[in-house]
Amino acid sequence: MGHKTGIVLAHLNICSLRNKINEITQICLTENIHVLALSETHLDSTFENSMLNVDGYRLYRRDRNQNGGGVAFYVKENIVATLKSELMSRDIEVIWLQINLPFSKPTLVGCCYRPPSSNAEYLQKICENMEMVSNKCGEMFLLGDFNIDWFSKKSFLFEKIITMANTCNLKQVMTQPTRIAMDNSSKSACIDHIYTNVPDLCFQAVSIGVGCSDHNLIAITKQTKMPKSGGRIMYRRSYKHFNPNLFIDDIKSSNWSTVVQEIDVNASLNTFMETFGKIVEKHAPLRKRTVKSNSAPWLDEELLSLMKRRDNAKKVASNSKHVEDYTNYRILRNRVTKLNFLKKKEYFGQKICGSMNDSKRLWKVLQELMCKKTKTFNLNMEIGGIIVSKPFDIANHLNDFFINKVEKLRSSMVVQDISSPCQNIQLTMENKACSLVFDTVSEDNVQDLLLSLPDDKTPGIDYIDGKILKIVANVLDKPICHIFNRALISGVFPDQWKQSKIIPLIKDEKSEFTASNCRPVHVLPVLSKIFERLIFNQMLHYFISNDLFTSAQHAYRPGHSTNTALVHMVDQWLTHLDDKKYVGAVLLDFTAAFDVIDHDILLAKLKCYGFSQLSLSLIRNYLNGRTQKVLFNGSLSETKFMSCGVPQGSCLGPLLFSVFVNDMSQEMRNAEVVLYADDATVFCASATVPELNTALQNQLNLVTNWVKLNKLVLNTSKTKCIVFRTKYLLNAPCYLNLRIDNSLVEQVTKTKLLGIKLDDQLSWTDQINHIVSKMGRGIALARRCVQY
Q1: Which domain holds residue 734?
Q2: How many domains does the chain contain in total?
Q3: Residue 695 · residue 683 · CB < 8 Å
Q4: Residue 493: DSSP 8-state
Q5: Which site among 12, 56, 232, 507 is 20 to 30 Å from 120 CA-CA?
Q6: Residues 191 and 325 in one domain
Q7: CB under 8 Å to 311, separation ≥6 — which residues?
Q8: Which stretches of the chain drop beneath a pLDDT of 70?
Q9: Are 523 and 499 in contact (CB under 8 A)?
Q10: Which of 458, 406, 399, 40 is nearest to 237 (CA)?
């Protein structure tokens, strides 16, 4: 069903979604549904969204978390939808979305479930919610199972809801039976309704029998222009006709002497990539493909055919009302359930048996069985009030946002003398006589690094992956080694390796798809990552062997981790608490920490740490002239230049950031700071709350000055403070008044630090409950999977 000129809204009482994902997938595809509302989903927190994935759709849900109930939406991924939590009443089962389409007003779409056992007060609350929503919007649709028969005109419930619908200028447009009687002892009823205030813009609502529920699917099409749905686009190399022996022969027969004879590293790399790229394209050509992942690969023709027979049997039974026809339908329904289970069991059984000798491959199969999938987001975006569907335009918008965000932060900073941030480091290095000169590497080193590459490493903008480099590691080690050494000797980082492909990762899948809800991750050329690893290893060895890392830093130091950082802090806090003191901690949060690093300050600090001029030249060249393109749905944006920052997604970037903040702890007076990469926690202890407030404020002032001096930015809205105390001090007031410049630091009683949940009594109750809940979900998931 469905008209090409409109959006199809549908509802189905699914009576437990848990084992009916196959059915929902088929219904969405067959009926061309854009927004599917579901009632009686019977879900709880042990069912993650990834376990309920329907390809091409996003899931929004509201669970009852008790027996039965629950409402949800599946929305096609080319439609911009926002969950409207403020419209949802706690007292009734209802969920609301705002749908934004090109050339249309925003439309509110709701799904409601009224249990048949509920009283008149429950219906009154539904009516109040309808009235409240109708007063806030232009176009509105409310679909659901109301358990009120539209054919029973004289019932109290009917009169109540029709009165409210008229008051809200809503019309109930479903006039066909939605729950079909299977025998003559009962009557068919219209208990699933569609309410709207724009009936004139809609085609006639329809009721369609489906075999997976005793309710019919109800649907309505609203006339509007729909955005194109081209699916997810991806570029990958095709290994369909790849012959490794022929590929190696072509590599061996090529002339690499021009690469190793070239002194200029950029010219050498360009020659290498031109020759190597042609051979790779010949044997493993780059192909554009539309991603059509199958959420139920075991769903074959046999099972589909049986599902159709079951659906037809239901139609026959509902028309004839004969017991024999209903019995036939039930037999076919049970056969579908059993065959689906057997097909799924056979599919995963074969994959698990074929992966028993490969733990990595086995884990992938288990993840597929547990439906562990990465977050996906809308293919369209609202930009300036307009729905944009072209991937190139969205990619450019994201790229502009990422660059402009950093530029705005930089423009708000006060320019400081770059020599002043290095004073602490100069004091540290007074008694140290060390210098870092990057050593050249051997062909064996290069070959080992190439062979250690994972096959599934995401390729950079050149689409040269680790799999193909590993195949020729013992053939190309010489020219690649020459390029690496020319870069180290000349202090020049090749321009091709400074091109980043940005993958936007959504931060919160429950929030709207906007540029501010995306995190940029840099994907660099694989050869660039290998060269960075060489630099990383030498830098890390230099800092560790010369004891240049502060003891406050728990990242990149042997024997140190988030565990040691947490153990150290908690041990200090407990010691102070044993002395009947208050302990105050400020959890600092940096805004765009990696992206705003000032190159001049970083280089000045590296010089103080003993980097030679040639080593500084290489790092300076690595940082300067970097470019980025955003990849969105197969389309690359225009090129943008990065004026500051270190690339996220690189191995060298986090190390450079840790070196950048390494001297922060030297600013502390009568307090301590613990660092782990871009996480920083400042804490101190005092006998009284006023003393604690004064001490922490003094430390915050020092931190704030250091941050400004180093041209970083503190996120005052995410920076929190907490006071730890014993039960002995629990009843005493302990409110802090800490400020960063003019912004008040929020005080909390519970927080999350380095992945651990803490409360102000260090009771560990929240962390234990979190782990128990997580284990419970895992056990429940394992229990469901063990049958396969």
Answers
A1: 549-598+644-788
A2: 3
A3: no
A4: -
A5: 12
A6: no
A7: 209, 210, 211
A8: 1-4, 185, 227-231, 291-295, 370-378, 414-419, 510, 729-732, 781, 784-788
A9: no
A10: 458
CB 365 within 8 A of CB 355: yes
Contact 178, 1 (CB under 8 A): no
| Strand bridging mode 720-724 / 746-747 | parallel
CATH code, domain carrying 669 = 3.30.70
Angle at 687 between CA 682 and CA 692, to 5 degrees: 35
Is 755 contained in some domain?
Answer: yes
Domain boundary pick from 340, 369, 398:
369
Among the listed residues 274, 261, 267, the one whose alpha carbon sits nearest the alpha carbon of residue 479: 261
Report which DSSP code applies to 695.
Answer: H
Q: What is the pLDDT of residue 678?
A: 82
- Note whether 109 and 99 are within 8 A (CB): yes
Q: What is the pLDDT of residues 655-712, one digit of tens each?
A: 999 999 998 888 777 778 899 888 899 999 998 999 999 999 999 999 998 998 899 9
Radius of gyration over every alpha carbon of the chain, rounded to an integer in angstroms: 31
Instruction: With residue 75 as reference, give the H or E element that holds it.
Output: strand 71-76
43's tokens: 């879900």
690 within 8 A of 631, measured Cβ to Cβ: no
Residue 2's pLDDT is what?
A: 47
Instruction: Give yes or no: residues 556 and 662 share one domain.
Output: yes
Q: Which residues of 617-652 are buried (b: 16+ CB within 10 A; e: fewer)?
A: bbbbbbbeebebbbbbbbbbbeebebebbbbbbbbb
Tokens of 343: 């097909």
Name the amino acid, one letter, at 574.
L
CA 81 vs CA 84, 381, 512: distances in Å: 9, 10, 7
Cβ–Cβ under 8 Å, residues 286 and 12: no
- Whether residues 214 and 320 fall in one domain: no
Between the two ends of the chain, the Cα-to-Cα distance in Å is 35
Q: Are 479 and 486 in contact (CB under 8 A)?
A: no
Distances (CA, A) of 287 to 235, 237, 239, 745: 6, 6, 10, 52
Which tokens in the block code for residue 8?
Answer: 């199809």
The per-residue b/e assignment along 534-573, b for 16 or more CB within 10 angstroms, e otherwise, is: bbbebbbebbeebebbbebbbbbbeebebeebbebbbebb
The answer to the question of residue 538 being in a domain is no
Residue 461 located in a structural domain: no
Asked whether 470 and 455 are in contact (CB, 8 A), the reply is yes
Which residue type sits at 470?
K
- Say if 632 falls within a structural domain: no
Domain boundary among 190, 223, 256: 223
Q: Is the pTM of this model over 0.90?
A: no
Q: Letter for the amino acid at 179?
A: R
Q: How far apart are CA 212 and CA 21, in angstroms?
A: 10
Long-range contacts of 739-745 (CB under 8 A, 24+ apart): 739/697, 739/700, 740/700, 740/704, 740/714, 740/716, 741/704, 741/716, 743/716, 743/717, 745/586, 745/700, 745/716, 745/719, 745/720, 745/721
